[in-house]
Amino acid sequence: MGPLNRVIASSVPFMPKSLVGRVGRRYAAGEEVEDALKVVGSLAREMSGDRGHARRVRHRRAAHLQKVERYRRAVDALEKQGLEDYRVAVKLTDLGLTLNRELCRKNLEEILLYARDRGRFLEVDMEESPFVSATLDMVLDMHERHGNTGAVVQAYLRRTLEDVQRLEEEPAEAVTAR
After folding, report:
1. 123 φ, ψ to 5°?
2. C-beta separation of 139 from 163 below 8 A
3. Residues 123/138, Cβ–Cβ less than 8 Å
4. Strand partners of residue 46
5. For a surface tag, which of 44, 98, 143, 174 has the fewest beta carbons within 10 Å of its beta carbon?
6. Cβ partners under 8 Å of residue 154, min gap 6
7. What are the pLDDT digits (tens) for 128-166?
8. How confident is the model at residue 106 (pLDDT cuts 50, 70, 90)?
9. Domains of the chain: total
10. Per the domain annotation, does 75 fall within a domain?
C-alpha cells in the first residue's frame, strides 16, 4: 500500500459514517451478505449478456466470411462459363460494414484481389443512405490501391450528383451508373 493510501486508510475511523458509506459504495457490494449477493447476481447477468453478445458477433463474422466465399465462387462461375465482359457486384453490408469497417475493408480487399488475379473488375453496389460515405471512401481507396473496382451509384439518392462528381475526379472506371 502506498503512502497516500495508508494516510487515507488511517483516517477512515475519524470520518463521518455517511461519507465513508458514499465513498465505499463504489468499492463494496454492500454491508450485508444479501446486498453483496444482489450485486454479484447483477454482474453475472450482465456478463452472461456480454458472452451472448460476443457469441452473436462471432456468428456474424462467420456469416460474412461465408459471403466472401460466395463472391469468390461467383467470380469462378463467370470464368468457368467464359463470360469475359461480366462483372461481380458486392454489397459492403454483406462483407461486414455494419459490424466493423476494418473487417469489411479486409473482406472487400480479399475479394478484390481474387477478382483481379482472374482479370475481373469488381463493382461495389451503393446501399442505403447511412452507408454511402463509407462505401465511397472504401471504393476510392481500393481503386487507388488496386484499380479494378468502382462504385455503382443509385440515381434516386439526393446526394448522387455530388457523389458522381467526387468519383469523376478519380479515373473513369471508379464509377458505374445504373
Report:
1. -100, 140
2. no
3. no
4. none
5. 44
6. 126, 160, 178
7. 878 888 988 899 899 889 888 888 877 766 666 776 777
8. very high
9. 1
10. yes
> Does any domain span residue 127?
yes
3-state secondary structure the chain: CCHHHHHHHHHHHHCCHHHHHHHHCCCCCCCCHHHHHHHHHHHHHHHHHHHHHHHHHHHHHHHHHHHHHHHHHHHHHHHHHCCCCCCEEEEHHHHCCCCCHHHHHHHHHHHHHHHHHCCCCEEEECCCHHHHHHHHHHHHHHHHHHCCEEEEECCCCCCHHHHHHHHHCCCHHHEEEC
Cell numbers representing residue 29 in the block = 457490494
Let me know if residue 42 belongs to a domain: no
Longest dimension (CA), the chain: 87
Cα(149)–Cα(82) distance, rounded to whole angstroms? 20
As given in the structure block, the three cell numbers for residue 57 are 458477433
Range of the domain at 78: 69-177
Q: Answer yes or no: are the C-beta atoms of 171 and 143 closer than 8 Å.
A: yes
Tell me the CATH number at 128.
Answer: 3.20.20.220
In angstroms, the CA 19 to CA 148 distance is: 66
Q: 115-118 contacts: CB < 8 A, separation 24 or more?
A: 115/75, 115/88, 115/148, 116/146, 116/147, 116/148, 118/75, 118/76, 118/79
